[in-house]
Structure formats: C-alpha cells, structure tokens
Amino acid sequence: MYPLQTLHTFGLPACAQEIEYIHSLAEAKQLMDKLAGRSYYILGEGSNTVFLEDFAGSILKIAIKGIALHESAEHYELHVGAGENWHALIEWCLARDIYGFENLALIPGTVGAAPIQNIGAYGVEVEQFIHSVDYLCLASGEVKSLTHKECRFGYRDSIFKQQLAGQFVIGMVKFRLPKSWQANARYAELKTIQNPSAEEIFAKVVEMRQAKLPDPKIIGNAGSFFKNPIIGLTLYQHLQQRHHELPSYPVNAKQVKIPAAWLIDKLGFKGKQQGGICCHVSQPLVLTNDGSGTGEALLTLARQIKQAVKQEFGIELENEVLLVSNNGLVHV
Ligand SMILES: Cc1cc2nc3c(=O)[nH]c(=O)nc-3n(C[C@H](O)[C@H](O)[C@H](O)COP(=O)(O)OP(=O)(O)OC[C@H]3O[C@@H](n4cnc5c(N)ncnc54)[C@H](O)[C@@H]3O)c2cc1C
C-alpha cells in the first residue's frame, strides 16, 4: 500500500494500492492500456482532492514538465506541461516581464488541473489566457486538442467536468497573453493601489491570500469546500425579504451568485469543530483538518452544513472539492 497523506493538501491518512508517475501522454496511454478495467485516480498536487479513506486502485500522478515560450508581435504564447506548479509558472512569467496571471497568484496545484475547474480569484479566471488544451482521449487513445471555445469554460467549470468527465488526461496547456498588459484591479482591495504594476498586484494578492486563507502546509485544507451557489432571481428576492443584507453578484438577467461563506457564517458554523475537522474561523467556506481528522468526520460536518443551508435558505450547496472514497468519487 502507498501512503497518500502527503499527496493531498487536506492530509487525511489514506493509502492506494499503487502510485505511477506520468511523464508524457505516451506514457499515460501505455499505463491506461495496462490498467484496462481497473480503478485509478489521476492526481496533480491534490489541492482540490480529498482522499476520505484507502483507495482501492492506482494513483496516476501527473509529472509532465516543461515550459516553452513563443512570441509574436502582439502575444506571448506559453506551452506548459500539465505537471508544472501553477504559482511557480506565474513567478517564471514575472521574471521575464510576461504579465496577466498575477491575480491568480498562490492558487495551489498544477497547470494541468487549472483548466478543468477554470481556476479563478480576484476578478480573473484562467480561461482568459487559455488558447488550447492538449489531452489524451481515453475513449479513442488519441492525443487531441481543444480550442478555448471548445473547452466551454464557465464558473469553476469546463467541458472536462461535464461531457469529457473521466475521459481525458491533460498533457499540455497553451496560453496566450497579450503583450499590451492592462492591470485588472477592479477587486475591492486591489483598488487601493494607484496604477499598480503586475508585480504590485502579485505581491498584494499573495499578502491577502496569506492573511485570509489557512496555509495547507501548516493546517490541512483543500481551499473552498463548497461552490458559491447560483440561484434564480425569484428565490433571491424571496430570501432578501428575510435577510436584507444577503450579498449577491449578478450572473445574468435571471440568476445571481451567492457567497456560500455568508450562508455558512449566518448559520453559526464558523469555528465549529468536531472530530479534528473545523469550519475555519476567518473563512467558513474552508474546512480544515487539525491532523487528527477522518474522512467520516469531514463528511459529517460537511453534511450538517449542507442540510442546514438547505433548510434555512432552500439552497442546495455542491462540493467544489473532489471527495474520493474507496472506489471512486462521492458527493456530500
Ligand atoms: C488553500 C487553497 C486555496 C485555493 N484557492 C483557490 C482559488 O482561489 N481559486 C480556485 O479556483 N481554486 C482554488 N483552490 C483549489 C485548487 O487549488 C485548484 O482546484 C487546483 O487547480 C487544483 O490543482 P491540483 O493539481 O492540486 O488538482 P488535484 O486536486 O490533484 O486534481 C483535481 C482534479 O483534476 C484532475 N486532474 C488533475 N490533473 C489532471 C490532468 N493532467 N489530466 C486529467 N485530470 C487531471 C484530478 O483527477 C481531479 O479530478 C485552492 C485550494 C487550496 C488548498
């Protein structure tokens, strides 16, 4: 059995039957042929994955490396291996005066996982810079490429979570960043800097994240546990009558996004602790593991939160984190 505790940022004790490292899509194809019919889980840096218990299968850890830079008159084009670290890529770019990614500083994880849930923070989503994604199609065994449009990006969403779910191994992400950079400083705390440079935005984002979010190297967590729910205007207006201060962000003419942290805070879960699992005191959307937590304790607290939100607000929370049980993914 192979220990997984250090391979996922939530740090629950769990093991897998086997771990294989994938260095190329050709290697991925060979492994998939070998595994035919057996259980496996593809793993980046495990910052959006929680192993709830021992996994009865193989872990395929993405270790595809490499950054290639191409330039045209107007753009930088970067071809980046799926196993590169996301934050290290931003630093690599800043050192070469290539700007655009800075609002997404300090998001843990690999480059290959970034398009899957269209990572986002401080007013920017990674899709803005994605030109195309190369992947191994598990149905045909061929390496294919999807353009930005074909990736069907949405809020924490893409084709990889929908139509292609479970049918791909991403090998490379191709980014296109305009040389004519413009700061994206619309987010409240970034507005405080006058004419910010990319380096200043990067430094501010790092500072804000370090102040607000628990560092997984110190206390186990997997970032936001639940997605921010998107609800219809009718429900929103109904809820506003009871909760005048209910915050919301417009999504389209018919829907708004509600901060799940607000709902959880309102119900008094902030700081609630049981069985080594805690609803974080300053960011209730994050559940943490003090080192003694178990998969069962995590599911219990997460289900209490989900049930209370449903009962009070009529809103169905969905886990953003991928919860892996003995034989595959489960939902709260
Ligand atoms: C403290 C903290 C803060 C966070 N903040 C943010 C934030 O601000 N915004 C945000 O969007 N997210 C955030 N996250 C979530 C997380 O960082 C992202 O989801 C990240 O992209 C996950 O990368 P990973 O390599 O760790 O993915 P993993 O957890 O290893 O994998 C995630 C999913 O992608 C699949 N996968 C990974 N690589 C590949 C591949 N090459 N091919 C096929 N499938 C693959 C896995 O099977 C799994 O389904 C945060 C997490 C933490 C712990």
CATH architecture of the largest domain: 2-Layer Sandwich
Low-confidence stretches: none
Q: What is the domain total for the residues?
A: 3
Relative helix content? 10-25%
- The neighbouring-strand order within the major sheet is 6-7-12-10-11
Indicate the CATH class of the largest domain.
Answer: Alpha Beta
Shape verdict: globular
Q: Which fold name is given in CATH as the topology of the largest domain?
A: Uridine Diphospho-n-acetylenolpyruvylglucosamine Reductase, domain 3
Rounded Rg: 20 Å
- Count of helical regions: 6
Distance between the termini: 27 Å
- How many strands appear in the DSSP assignment? 21
Query: What is bound: which ligands?
Result: flavin-adenine dinucleotide
Largest sheet: 5 strands, antiparallel
Strand content: 25-35%
Per-chain topology:
Layout: E1 2-3, E2 15-22, H1 25-35, E3 40-43, E4 49-51, E5 55-62, E6 67-71, E7 75-81, H2 86-95, E8 120-121, E9 124-125, E10 130-137, E11 143-147, E12 168-178, H3 198-212, E13 220-224, E14 230-232, H4 233-242, E15 249-250, E16 255-257, H5 260-266, E17 273-274, E18 277-279, E19 286-289, H6 295-313, E20 322-325, E21 328-330
Parallel strand pairs: 2-5, 3-5, 4-20
Antiparallel strand pairs: 1-2, 6-7, 7-12, 8-9, 10-11, 10-12, 13-19, 14-16, 15-16, 17-18, 18-19, 20-21
